[in-house]
Amino acid sequence: MSDPQSFPIEKIRVPEMKRKALKPEVVQDIAGSILDIGQQDAILVRREKDHFVLVEGLHRLEACKALGERAIIGRLISAEAARQTPHPSQAADAERQKMERLRKLRLEKEAAELAETSRTASQAEAATHKREHPNKTVGSNLIAASKQSRSAHSGSTLRTLSDWIKQQERSGGRY
Q: Do residues 87 and 18 touch, judged by C-beta distance below 8 A?
């Protein structure tokens, strides 16, 4: 098998039997993945006269076509190696597994972006609150609550003996 190289898409022919296995939703998913992270796996082609015949990678080829690409990364294999490629159902299973990996990667990326957005929003909200209330801190809130508590109870809690005497005089009591 050769090293990956660039093949002109217009020179790649797709056998009719392979074309029947085309699933537009898979093409769409792969196209989205190619936009996000680029083409990760090379297609397989074999040479035939003045063009190439697709051996494996129909959905990747169609995704690149849909994206307007003129070339695709592939590997050139011999006709003998092409005959030894997996049965279409095995290839479909491999394609499904690949799509599942791509979907998982995309979901992880979206989750990371969402977490970053959420963290940024929380930081912005905290900064706004701090700008609007610069003197409000946990310590100053506790001090203010303590002062309010003392002033609310000042009528019932006497601090000195003279305060107690004054209260007794006002109520007409004896000491």
A: no
Two structure tokens written together for 122:
């929380």
**DSSP state for residue 46 in the 8-state scheme:** E
57 vs 118: CA distance, rounded Å? 38
**Contact criterion met (CB below 8 Å) for 73 and 34:** no
Residue with token string 């609007």: 132
How far, in whole angstroms, is CA 129 from its chain's centroid? 28
Residue 28: which of 111, 91, 88, 106 has the closest Cα?
A: 106
Phi (first) and psi of residue 43, to 5 degrees: -80, 165
Q: What SS3 string covers 22-41?
A: CCHHHHHHHHHHHHHHCCCC
What pLDDT digit, counting tens, does each position of 139-174 carry?
555 555 555 545 544 455 667 878 878 888 887 766
Phi, psi of 40 (to 5 degrees): -95, -35
Q: Which residues contact 47 (CB under 8 A, 6 or more apart)?
A: 53, 76
Report the predicted TM-score, pTM, of the whole model to 2 decimal places: 0.50
Closest alpha carbon to 71 in 45, 90, 95:
45
- CA 86 from centre of chain: 33
What is the β-pairing status of strands 12-13 and 5-8? Answer: unpaired
